[in-house]
């Protein structure tokens, strides 16, 4: 989940306690983004993203779906060629969520 959001594991801190029935809570050190995991078998992973963290999240997500080409740098490689990062993010969340 961390790499899907465009961050690296080093950006998150593993807190000593989980929350909401999850045993593990990873929190981004710079913005209010939390990833809860290791709950009951049917719980999956829960991600909490504060509204104030959305701009930073979109910057990181965009970087994770871009690639350099011989023609230009930072060309977005989107499945549907849509250049709207928020729409692409929500589409991908819908696919995995």
Explain what the structure shows.
Strand 5 (66-67) and strand 6 form a beta hairpin. The protein has 97 residues and is α+β, with helices and mostly antiparallel strands. Strands 1-2-3-4 form a four-stranded antiparallel sheet, with no helix packed on it. The chain has a two-stranded antiparallel sheet with strand order 5-6. The protein starts with a helix and ends with a helix. The protein has one domain. It has helices at residues 2-5, 54-64, 85-96, and strands spanning 12-15, 24-28, 33-37, 46-49, 66-67, 75-76. The chain is globular.
Distinctive features:
single chain; 97 residues; alpha+beta; four-stranded antiparallel β-sheet; two-stranded antiparallel ribbon
């Amino acid at each position: 989940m961390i790499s899907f959001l465009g961050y690296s594991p080093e950006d998150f801190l593993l807190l000593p306690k989980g929350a909401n029935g999850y045993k593990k809570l990873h929190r981004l050190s710079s913005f209010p983004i939390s990833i809860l995991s290791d709950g009951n078998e049917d719980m999956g992973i829960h991600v909490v993203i504060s509204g104030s963290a959305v701009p930073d999240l979109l910057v990181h997500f965009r970087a994770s779906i871009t690639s350099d080409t011989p023609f230009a740098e930072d060309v977005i490689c989107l499945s549907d060629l849509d250049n709207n990062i928020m729409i692409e993010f929500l589409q991908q969340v819908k696919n995995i969520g």
